[in-house]
Each structure stands twice: as structure tokens, then as C-alpha cells.
Amino acid sequence: MPPKNCGIVVLGALAALSLHAPASATIIGIAGAAFPTEEASPSYLANAFNDPSTPAPRVHWWNEQQNVTLGAGLTDVLDIVAPGVYGAPFASALGDLSAGTAVSSHYLYFDPLNTRSAIATFTFDADILGIVVLTSHLAGSDSLRILAPYPVNPLFTNRGVEFGPEHIALGVDLRTVTVNLAASSPGDQIRVITAAVPEPASVLLLGAGLVGLAARRRRAGI
Question: For residue 152, what are the domain limits?
């Protein structure tokens, strides 16, 4: 028989966990040329950050919409969904996201003034559902972008990755992405879509349910 205070212990532990649980999926590790950009000032336009050729070029990144439930599905927009290294010739996986899926979105942006290359690795705290790299599929998933006043310029039609010397690697853990990019302006833009992370309140509700279940089991003598 479980100890009488097991429900209190479980709820206390879950409450403590909720204090540290992230409210959104995010990038928790970076290496190489990764450069964080404030979420209040992203841009999807060509040469938006006016990056100089020196010092080393930057792969900007920021979080887009977080913990959103898709009201409508996104069809044929996920270009990379399975672990591996992807380069030329590239064929999209044409993966889907179903309506009702809870997701968080993240953006990678590489656009030096002159032709340069950069390698950066990103580690996420939630599983990657898919990576979007083709221009038309970026447009098809732009419902996840940071909202106005940061519109997408309809004339900027070359923001995807043109695979050649470039390649992208999705780790077997589905939480790590390494990009090896070469571009000038306009450069490369990549969207990484991850599973949503439950809000702390959801963790507490789960804990309350577990405590109730434990109490019922005690009353039943289980």
C-alpha cells in the first residue's frame, strides 16, 4: 500500500516542476555561428540585418509563435521530417501537420552582405516535427510567423535554401539541427517546427489528477 502522504509528495514535486517548466518550446543550446535575435525585432525581408562581411557572418534565430494549436492543417509544407543529412539533390518530404496539432515555431536567418558561409547547431527542448526550407513552403507555413508589424515582403521570393554546397542535418534525437549554409543577399531562411511544451498550469492539472487517482486507489485498498 502506498504511504498516506504519497499524493501530497507527488503534487508537491509536480508543483516544484511547474516552477521550472518552460512555458514554450525554445532553443536551449547553440554552437558555431548562431546569433540570437530579440523576438521583438525579427524581420523576414532580404538583408534586413545588414550583416557585414566581417566579423564572422551570423545565423540569426528567434522564436516565432509558441504553443499554438493549428485550427487548420498545413499540407505539404514540411521538407525534412526524418533524421539524416540533406543536401543536393534535394527532394521535399512534403510532410503535413494535422489540424489540432499543438506546435511551436522557430526561425533561422542567414543573409550576409557578400557571399559567405557559416555553420551553426541548434538544440531544442521539444521534438522537431519538421523543418521547412523551400520558399513556397515557407510561405505556406507563414501563419506561424511573428505577427504584424513584421509582414513578409511578397517580392522576396528567394528566401529558402538553394542546396548545392549547403546541407542541413537533423539529429537522430529529433532535437538537434546543424545548418551548413553559403549565401549572399538574399540569403537563406529556415523554419523549424517543434512539438509544443505544456504550460506549467497543465502540469499542475496533471498532478492533481494523479493525486486523485492515488486517493481513489487508497480508498479501494489497492
Answer: 26-197
